Each structure stands twice: as structure tokens, then as C-alpha cells.
């Protein structure tokens, strides 16, 4: 039996795939993007854009899963993590280019939100679901611990240190410090990818009783995987473009609700991490918690390791300061997340309690983002 979101099963065909909504939605997203780009939108059109944007995100999940099913783990998790990060980076850069002084901290707010959502929200939800359904959520402590250590190091170098450096006033790196942080982030991320996919691939493979149906589902052919890869790229173009079109409505909604402008970063992170959340939750429901953790921590890592270098390059033509340093409340939340994450990872298995603890940390982050 085939996974319900993967239409490329044994006996399937490209023609059958072309009849799927997951094919039409990326095309519709790109066409709609061309129709609304650069125009003032009314309430009805804004709602339509939001609906098509959500459909494009779900279509991206589907096609990323098809590609992942073809290349296998842990390459599949890497495909989706990088795809989602491309969306995030593009959104941050485009909003910073078009924004004013309030956009100087957008990169920090979005990246930190992505770390908290992945390391607490996705991890907590998947541990809770996996433990509730199978008794215990079982995973590989070596691989997950390596991923968590890399996330913690990247976050400290790029988001915590700017608060304490003295070369520039405020939570801001000097040009040399930013170049070092960007280079170190890229190097660490590349080293982790090599470790995950080449040297110690077995550390990141699912353990425990994975679904027999999922294990025996025939992988798509090379041609079918290439079709999904093309549609994935098309969906990403639609998601990035439509999210940019929708950004004024997001900023207006945040302002109308009386939330701080920094909450825009939380909304962006929630939006771009929806594919990861859906894919990770589906993996947890199939007793593949390791895949869920690969997706969650891989996204947190890519969010820092790819975003910070890109933003560092973008500062060449961006006006205004780039505020990366976290405030004391955020540093406390990040430190608590790392400590709790270590205690969760070390045993290699988790109960519903660990999942609940991570979700409470996410709730605290969202609450304090609204009421700093």
C-alpha cells in the first residue's frame, strides 16, 4: 500500500500525477503571482492569495516527499529542509529590501522564531504523537545529539554573541565579526551535511518499528522524481512570491492586533515551516521519529547556517543596521531549549512528558513574543 500523499506508487504513472491537485496548485500559484504582482489588493483577492499560498505549501510538501522517497533517508529530510530554508531566506531578503527601519531586526526575529518552532514545536509535537501512539518515541541519540549540538553552536555564534560584542553599539556585529559568523555557520552546516549523508549516515536513519506499508512502497522512477523536483521548484517560486504579496497584509494584521512588529518574524517562520511540520508529523505517525527529528533540527540548522551567510552578503546593498543579537528574555528561552533538548536526546527515547515540556517552551516563546 502506498503513502496517501505519494501518488507515484507501483503501477502509477506520470499521466496520473498530472491529474493530481498537487500538479495544478504550483502552476496556479505562479499564474496568480504574475496576475497580482505589484498591485494593490482588496480583501477578496488577499484571501484568495492566502488560500493558494497554503495549497502551494502543501503541494511543496508532497513533491518533496516524492523526491525524498526516491533518494531515501537522510537525503529526503535534507531536501525538504533546504527547500523550506530557501523560502525563508527569500522572504527575509525581500522584506528587508522593501522595509524600513523596522526590518533591521527581521532576520534575527525570523531565525530565532524558526529555531524555537522547530526545536520545541515540531520536536515536541512529534515526540508527543509518537509516544502517545507507540508507547515510546524511539530515535538515534548519536545523530540527534550531533544535530542539536550544531544548532546550539550556530545559534550562539550568530544570535547570542552580537548582544555581548563591543565593536558596534547595540546587538550588532561589525563587518569582520559578521563575516566570521557567516563563514563559520556555512562551514558548520556543510560539515554536518557531509556527516549526515556520507560519513555517518546510519546515525540518522529511523530506528524502531517503521510501518511495513511505508517500507515496502515502491519508490518512484527517476523520471517521476524529476517531475516532482520540477514541480517542487515551481511551488517554491509560487510560495515565495505569494508570501511577498501577502506580507503587507501580515504586517497590517500584526499591527491591528496590537502585537510588536517583531511578531512579523514569528508569522513568517510559522508560514514557511508549515511543510516541515506536516512532513514531520506524518513521519511520527509512522513510528519514524528519527525522520521527524532530522526534519526539525535540520531546518533549525539550515535556517541559521544558510540564512546568516545570505543576509551577510545582502548587507552589501541593504541600508541600515543588521540587528542579530537576542534580548535577555530570548537568550533565557534559547538556553532553556538547549538544556531541555540535551536531556531529551541523551536517552534515545522519550515519553509524552518530554513532548509536553517542549510544547510548553514553544507556548512561552509565543506568549512572550506577544507580551515582551
TrEMBL record:
Residues 44-197, 228-370 form the Sodium/calcium exchanger membrane region domain. It comes from the Bacteria. It is a multi-pass membrane protein. The chain crosses the membrane at residues 21-37, 43-63, 75-99, 111-132, 144-164, 176-195, 225-243, 263-281, 293-317, 329-346, 353-370. Keywords: Membrane, Transmembrane, Transmembrane helix. GO terms for cellular component: plasma membrane. GO terms for molecular function: potassium:proton antiporter activity; sodium:proton antiporter activity. Pfam families: Na_Ca_ex (PF01699). It is found in: Membrane. This is Ionic transporter y4hA. It comes from Virgisporangium aurantiacum. The lineage of its organism: Bacteria, Bacillati, Actinomycetota, Actinomycetes, Micromonosporales.
